[in-house]
Each structure stands twice: as C-alpha cells, then as structure tokens.
Design goal:
The protein has 18 helices and seven strands. It is an alpha/beta fold and 494 residues long. Strands 1, 2, 3, 4, 5, 6 and 7 form a seven-stranded mixed β-sheet that branches. Helix 5 packs across helix 6, helix 7 crosses helix 8 and helix 7 packs antiparallel against helix 9.
Length: 494
C-alpha cells in the first residue's frame, strides 16, 4: 500500500512539475495519438524546421497524395467495450452505496453515465466532422496548387483511389467535392461527378498491403501480448492513482476503457471534462505514450516488415512521377520537332503548360493509418539522418522515449484522422541546379526528409536513389508470403 501511494504521489508531482511551468494550456485533444482530430493537431509544430523555398522558375507538374480517412465513429467491437464499461461502473457505484462509502469524490457525470453509442448497431463510419476534414482539405489543395487543377476533369488526369472500406471511399468523395467545387453544373454548388477507384480488399497491395501480407499478420498476432505487457506498468500505476483519487475500485481494464472513452469523447464529441477529466495531464501523456509505443512496434519503425510491405505503394508514387516526367519530356520533343525557338521552348518547359489531358496531374489516395504510417516510415519521416540509415540497413531503432521526455514519433502527428503525405513534383528551368524537384509535405506542412539532407525539397534523382531504391531489395510476395528463414531474418529488425 505504501508503494502504491508513493507511485500516486510521484504521478501527481510529475503533473505539477511538467505542466505548471508550461506557457500554453494543456489541450487533451492534441494528445490522443491516432484518434486525434486533424484540426486539433495539423498546425502543431512537432519540430523546429526552416522550410525550403521553391526556386524561382519551378512549377508544380504532378501531385501525389496518401491520406487517411477522416474522423470516424467507434467500431462495433469498441462500442461493446463501452457498454461493458457502463455495466462495470454501475456495479462499482452500487458497491460504494452498499458499503456506505463516501461518494463525494466520485465525479457527478459518472453517476448516471451511459455510452453515447448505446444501442447503435453499426459503427466505424465516417462522421460529419470527418467529411468536413476531407472536404476542406480538397479545397485547400486546389487553392494551393491552382495550376495543377485548372483544367477540365478527366479520370486519367486526376486519379482518385480509395480502399473498399466505406469510410475511406466516403473520404475520397468528400475530398473530391471540395477539390472540384464550382467546376461542374450539378446543383446550386456547381458540383461535378468524378470517379473513385477501389481494388478488392483481398488483393489491394497498394493501399491495404497489410491485409494481404500473411507474415505481417502472423508477426502482429505474436507481438500483441508482448506489447500489452510493456504497457501494463503504466496502466497499473494510473489505475492505482484513480482508485485513490475517486474511491472506486477500478481495474486495469477499466482504466484502458476510460482512456478509450476519453479519446472518443474528446475527438468525436469535443467533450474534454468527463472521461478525460479523470486523468491528470501527466497521466494523459503517459497513456498517449503507450498508444504511440504500440503504434511504433506493430505499425511503425519497430520492425522493418511493418513498412517494407508498403514498398508497392512507394513504387507507385515513384512511377507516377516518372510518367509525368516522361510525358513532359515527350511533349518537348514534339515541340522541338516543330522548330520552335529555343528561348520560347525553355519558357514553355518551365511553365508546365501542357496540352489539356496530355498526362496525369495528380494521383490521390485515401486509406488508413495502417497505410499512412508505413508510407511515412518508408520516407524516413520523424527520424534523424543516422536513424534513417539504420532502417535502410534493417537495424533496430530504440523505442520512443517515455513521457515526459520529448519524442518525435507521435501518433497524433504521424497519422491523425485525415492525416496525409503529399509529394509535389516540380519542373524547373533548364539552367536550374536540378531539373526536377520533389517537395515533401506532411499534414500540408513541409517536413525534413533525412534521405534528402533533412530538407523538405529534394532533387527527383536523389529521392529515387537515396530513398526509394534502398527499400526495393525485397519483392512483396517474398517478403509477405514466403516462409523462409532468410526472408524472416532480413525482414526483422527486432
């Protein structure tokens, strides 16, 4: 008992020490790992970084987007968990009453709480807030790159792909409505129809590569108990603190479910003083770390297979840029064959003014956290240069440091709802140092890429040589579905 009380005291002291001196108020909505709303975290600077200026004479000619679906409702399984929590809380409150214990410390909202999703049969769908996130993302991208989206829509020019999961395809639709707003003749908003392409869930190796990768599924199943063991000490410490604080006999499962409820209430309902109010800021930070640790081990840098299986997507991104370059170069040859003046040719070359419909200008993809996180890892985002070299050699990385230590790997930054990566291909004047440049944007902000000298702007050939090529030493089928000792050893970084 003395040890438990001392642990509770330390947690309280940590809360005071860490946040009383903070210049900004603590906002729990920025600490919900991958359950964070896009608007709550997209403008939070995760690192000090001086963005590059795109050189004069460079024009965007192609855009790749890999985006997560927007804010969604809890799944059926998690809604049942909340129903079970309500039942157990009712039992705990009954015990307090029968034992004539004081209920003064029990938060009033707990006394009659029922799950906001009680009685709901289906779950996991895109919410109105999620629709709004993707709709406005589409508008912002159109406004940011007007020259890319200034021609009449054609599905071969603006390719939109989504997984077969309804929340992803609905996100693609919401995005397209924003992107092409005012460009058609449908209704008072002058909308237009557009195509969204989906592969079968069973064979989608570009956006749901994790579903088709048997070795990954086996690894994840084998590691989940070990991950739970790593999280248990934190959950147990916080459970002890909650018991002391509210005189209720909470269990470890109660604490986990209350943390899940906190994330759902704060993200979906903007309620931050019920379940979230049970935890101190330092406890929230520790619970967030446990979520990020799980993300790191099972979906991120914790094992090379987690992201190597996403190489087909990385290759698809590279292929789309190479096709855009080939189309541009091919058009120049046509222009040259017509004996246009060389000065005019250079001007035409830099302007990006191609014949309408002559090549694909954007490849826009909508998927899941399990897609965005591995893709971000393939790019080496949120790593130092030395760490990026480690993952390319398939060497293990250290786990993200526990709160209150600072860390770069945060689920709220890496893959919030509607989180996204953009790779924008620029064509530059012939006298520029690089003819083609790629700018990497994460959640619409330039981000340092360690393979490109920690710059957000990278010569296309450097991106290809330093980032893409080193990842392509495994074929997807061999990596995912061939059980050989050699493949397993190469795929492992544990």
């Amino acid at each position: 008992m003395a040890i438990a009380r001392f642990a509770t005291f330390l947690l309280s002291l940590l809360s005071v020490f860490e946040y009383s001196a903070s210049s900004e108020p603590f906002d729990v909505r920025q600490h919900l790992s991958t359950v964070s709303r896009y608007g709550a975290v997209k403008d939070v600077a995760g690192h000090a970084f001086l963005r590059s200026n795109v050189p004069d004479g460079c024009s965007p000619i192609h855009l790749n987007l890999v985006a997560r679906h927007g804010t969604r409702s809890p799944t059926k399984k998690r809604m049942r968990e909340l129903d079970n929590l309500a039942t157990h809380l009712e039992s705990l409150l009954k015990d307090v009453k029968e034992q004539n214990l004081s209920s003064k410390k029990v938060p009033s909202w707990l006394l009659k709480w029922t799950s906001p999703w009680k009685g709901k049969i289906k779950g996991g769908e895109l919410t109105e807030a999620g629709e709004d996130e993707l709709y406005h993302l589409g508008i912002r991208i159109q406004e940011r790159f007007p020259d890319l989206f200034n021609e009449e829509y054609h599905p071969d020019v603006f390719t939109i792909k989504a997984t077969q999961v309804p929340r992803a395809s609905a996100s693609a639709v919401a995005f397209g409505i924003g992107l092409f707003s005012g460009r058609g003749r449908l209704g008072p908003g002058h909308q237009r129809a557009f195509a969204v392409i989906s592969e079968s869930r069973a064979s989608d190796k570009l956006l749901r590569f994790f579903d088709s990768c048997k070795n990954y599924k086996d690894f994840r199943k084998s590691q989940e108990p070990a991950v739970d063991k790593l999280k248990e000490p934190i959950i147990d410490e916080i459970t002890t603190a909650l018991k002391e604080r509210y005189t209720l006999n909470f269990t470890r499962q109660d604490t986990s479910s209350l943390w899940f409820l906190c994330k759902q209430e704060a993200s979906l309902l903007d309620i931050t003083d019920n379940a979230c109010g049970l935890f101190s800021p330092s406890e929230v930070a520790l619970l967030e770390w446990t979520d990020d640790l799980e993300l790191f081990i099972l979906k991120g840098y914790g094992k090379s297979l987690n992201f190597k299986m996403g190489v087909p997507l990385l290759k698809d991104v590279l292929d789309s840029m190479e096709q855009a370059i080939e189309a541009k170069e091919g058009l120049f040859q046509v222009v040259l064959s017509r004996f246009w003046h060389s000065t005019y040719l250079e001007s035409f070359q830099a302007s990006g003014n191609y014949a309408p419909g002559s090549y694909e200008k954007a490849r826009l993809r909508f998927a899941h956290a399990e897609t965005v996180v591995p893709f971000s890892c393939l790019l080496g985002l949120f790593l130092e240069e030395s760490e990026f070299k480690q993952i390319q050699r398939e060497e293990p990385l250290q786990y993200p440091p526990k709160s209150p230590q600072k860390r770069s790997f945060r689920g709220s930054m890496l893959a919030p709802f509607a989180g996204n990566n953009m790779l924008v291909l620029y064509s530059c004047h012939a006298n520029s140092s690089s003819k083609y440049l790629v700018q990497v944007l994460h959640n619409e902000r330039p981000i340092p890429v360690p393979g490109c000298g920690n710059s957000d702007l990278c010569p296309f050939e450097v991106l290809k040589e330093k980032i893409v090529t080193p990842h392509t030493n495994h074929e997807y089928e061999a990596l995912c579905n061939v059980k050989t000792e050699t493949v397993e050893q190469k795929a492992s970084s544990t």
